[in-house]
Amino acid sequence: MGRSDLRAKIRLEGDAKGAKKAIESTQTRFQRLTQTIKTSALAQVAALGGVVLAMRGVGRAIKAAIDLAAEQELAFNALEGALAPLGDEATKVAKALAADAAALQQLSRFGDETIIRAQAMIASFVREEDAIKAATKATLDLAEAKGFDLVAAADLVSKTLGSSTNALTRYGIEVTGAVGSTERLNSLTENIAKVFGGRALKATETFAGAMDQLGNAIGDEQEEIGFAITKNEAFIKLLHNLKASVEGSVESLKNFATGLQNIGTAINGVLPLGEIVLGTLDKIGTAFKALIVPVKIAAGLIHDWGEVTRTANEAQVEAIRIEELRK
Asked: Whole-model pTM?
């Protein structure tokens, strides 16, 4: 073999090794790009999932706060409504009873909104502030001792006070005195105290009672957050304005829908353009969804793709050069 042929062979083998190395480098870059895409996609999904979960959590917390505030507000309105015969004094007495309900919450497992509803039930028959307080306290002991719903227990107490029938006889409570009299109230509260006195407070000393009180305390904090929204005049005014706007725009929406339907009918009657338009809009929507990919990730992928393309081009040039040498 001559020197020139030997040099050509060595060069050819060297070039072949270089091309092989370039191809292997290309494969490596493609693998890395694939892994980057997978990792980026997973990271994106995880990040978006985390944001969605966080937003859902915030939404649920706000809704819970608003619901608790609304429940408290409805209970107070019910109490104030039951005290309406007091005239201008109704709101003042209702506020005093609500404050007493908050104090009773500390001495029982019942939330103050539930206690206020019990007060409203009793206030339908008894309208003196001190009498309602005494009857409510007795109701707490009765409900705890018998495992009753507090409002249901208040219904029994109020019927006993406001009618000639003693709804508590079956539970061993004797009541005397005329309907609506102080004697009847005292008889009821004293006899409940003899049989069930202190049961509401005693229940707070248990683990379950402590958990209920903790839940009530947390509920109070949530109520305050809810009241920041439900008591906000701007929000209330906005809701009223939205309601008026919706009611006023119903006819316009109907006309708009009819117009769209007529346009769709006309288009479909002339050309299959309606389907084309819908299909195009669908594709545009899909494209916009794809643009959610973070810019940083997209830039990284573009860089990697550029590197892969450059390496592939170099490998192709080397392959062509080697082929020319072989000829």
From this structure: 0.57
Instruction: Round to whole Å and give the CA distance between 277 and 273.
Output: 6
Rg (CA), the chain: 39
| pLDDT tens string 110-140 | 999 999 999 999 999 888 999 999 999 999 9
Residue 92 has pLDDT above 80, yes or no: yes
Q: What is the mean pLDDT of the chain?
A: 75
DSSP 87: G
**Interhelix angle 90-105/3-82, nearest 10 degrees:** 120
Per DSSP, helices labelled H in 125-232 are: 129-146, 150-162, 182-196, 199-203, 207-230
Q: For the beta carbon of residue 136, count every other beta carbon within 10 angstroms.
A: 25
Distance from C-alpha of 7 to C-alpha of 15, rounded to nearest angstrom: 12
Examine the pLDDT at 162 and tell me if it is beyond 80. yes
For residues 317, 319, 325, 327, the Cα torsion angle rounded to the nearest 10 degrees is: -120
- Top pLDDT among 260 and 225 is at 225
DSSP structure string for 228-261:
HHHT-HHHHHHHHHHHHHHHHHHHHHHHHHHHHH
Report residue 272: phi and psi, to 5°. -75, 35
Q: What is the pLDDT of residues 287-324, one digit of tens each?
A: 555 545 444 554 555 555 555 556 655 656 666 666 66
SS3 readout for 106-140 = CCCCCCHHHHHHHHHHHHCCCCCHHHHHHHHHHHH
253 — phi, psi (to 5°)?
-65, -40
For residue 182, give the amino acid letter. Answer: T
| Residue 326 Cα to chain centre, angstroms | 72
Close Cβ partners of 108 (under 8 Å, ≥ 6 residues apart): 115, 140, 144, 200, 201, 203, 204
